[in-house]
Amino acid sequence: MNLNEKDIFKRRFYSKIIFLSIIILIYTISSIISGFQNGMAFSSIPAGIFWLLQKFIPTQNALQYFPEIMDSAIKTVLLAITSTTVSATFALFLAIIGSNSTGINIFTKITTKVIASFFRNIPIVAWALILVFSFKQSQFTGFLALFLITFGYLTRAFSETIDDVAGDVIEALKSVGASYFQIVFCGVIPSVSSQLLSWLLFFIETGVRESTLIGILTGTGIGFTFSLYYKSFRYDAAGLVILIVTVIVIGIELLSNKLRKEMM
């Protein structure tokens, strides 16, 4: 090993030490300012885990709530599918007129990016709270919260997919004199359909997870059922809710991954 290689390894080692020291310093300062007590927090972990396992294990008595929980779970899944599908329809339209490849003009491109960024960067919890005050607790409120956040993400995802995948197709169709609508409907959409469906499945999967939290805030679906059992100290039933949600999410994820692999 020559001198230059030794110097390189030393610099890398010192860089890692400096980086780690900075992280530790930032963590320490943040803990002091926020009043976070590390010792108390970490020492309470075993007791918290023990309480969780003791209270949230579903019991025989919790099985009587199974039909009610499944009814809420099915509604939650359907809500996620509906909101994601509707948002994908609007997102596709906005992505087409706003992407760099198929955008109508600079105004539509900038407007699309601003709209997508606005809806995407407001947290879903904030959307839920805002909409609860406006529309009260209802299924429609949960639908809107999921729709708005998904719309923002899908608009960006669809737009970037069109730019990445359909560029060659667009150039080829332009060279033979195809019109704008022919380029979009005969070239762009068919060439990116599998990627768009992949994104749609991914956000349905994500929507099921998020709709649980949304339900707690909007008083709907499986989230509301969990909140009801938890607040009434029926922890075994709340544990059954968690178990069912976990199984549903894993099942949807496995199905979604399988479908995406077949489409790609």
TrEMBL record:
Known InterPro entries for this protein? MetI-like, MetI-like_sf
Whether Chaperone counts among this entry's keywords is no
The places in or outside the cell where this protein is found are:
Cell membrane
User: Per the UniProt entry, what species is this protein from, by scientific name?
Assistant: Leptotrichia trevisanii
- Domain ABC transmembrane type-1 spans what residues? 73-256
Record field: transmembrane = 12-33, 39-57, 77-98, 110-133, 140-159, 179-204, 211-231, 237-255
- Pfam families hit by this protein: BPD_transp_1
Q: Which UniProt keywords apply?
A: Cell membrane, Membrane, Transmembrane, Transmembrane helix, Transport
First-listed, main subcellular location of the protein, grouped into a coarse class: membrane
The UniProt entry lists membrane topology as: Multi-pass membrane protein
Question: Where is coiled-coil annotated?
Answer: none
The family classification in the record reads: Belongs to the binding-protein-dependent transport system permease family.
Do you know which CDD domains this protein is assigned to? TM_PBP2
UniProt name for this protein: Binding-protein-dependent transport system innermembrane protein
Query: What is any one GO biological process for this UniProt entry?
Result: transmembrane transport
GO cellular component, alphabetical, reads: plasma membrane
Q: Which domain of life is it from?
A: Bacteria
